């Protein structure tokens, strides 16, 4: 059985671009927003699942991510499942 990456999200699903490639292109072309990336290569305009990852890439420089969960209001909250589980457990065990 193949070993899954600790951070499995590495690319846009709708367009053939990895986040590593997009980071390099963003640096070369001075793209500073998700809208800049979308206008140039299309990523973020298809299903939209890559948008929060593109924002994190621009903010942190990372190109591989844990799977993000949606908050109760349906928004991506930027925390990984592991981070949410750890925080939820800590809150439940607090008096």
Structure description:
This protein has 95 residues and is mainly alpha-helical. It has one domain. Helices cover 44% and strands 8% of the residues. A hairpin with a 5-residue loop joins strand 1 (68-70) and strand 2. The longest helix has 13 residues, at 81-93.
Short précis:
The protein has 95 residues and is mainly alpha-helical.
Write the layout of secondary structure elements.
Blueprint: H1 19-29, H2 34-41, H3 51-60, E1 68-70, E2 76-80, H4 81-93
Antiparallel strand pairs: 1-2
Structural class: mainly alpha
Number of domains: 1
If helices are DSSP runs of H or I spanning 4 or more residues, what is the number of helices?
4
State the order of secondary-structure elements, H for helix, E for strand.
Answer: HHHEEH
Helix content: 40-55%
Low-confidence stretches: 77-85
Strand content: 5-15%
Shape descriptor reads globular
Distance between the termini: 42 Å
Q: What summary fits the major beta sheet?
A: 2 strands, antiparallel
For this structure, the quaternary state is single chain
Task: Give the number of DSSP strands.
Answer: 2
Mean pLDDT reading: 82
Q: Strand order of the main beta sheet, please?
A: 1-2
CA radius of gyration:
15 Å
């Amino acid at each position: 059985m193949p070993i899954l990456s600790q951070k499995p999200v590495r690319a846009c699903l709708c367009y053939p671009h990895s986040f590593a490639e997009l980071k390099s292109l963003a640096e070369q072309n001075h793209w500073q927003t998700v809208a800049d990336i979308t206008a140039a290569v299309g990523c973020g305009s298809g299903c939209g699942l890559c948008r929060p990852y593109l924002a994190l890439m621009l903010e942190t420089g990372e190109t591989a991510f844990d799977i993000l969960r949606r908050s109760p209001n349906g928004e991506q909250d930027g925390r990984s499942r592991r981070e949410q589980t750890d925080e939820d457990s800590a809150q439940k065990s607090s008096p």
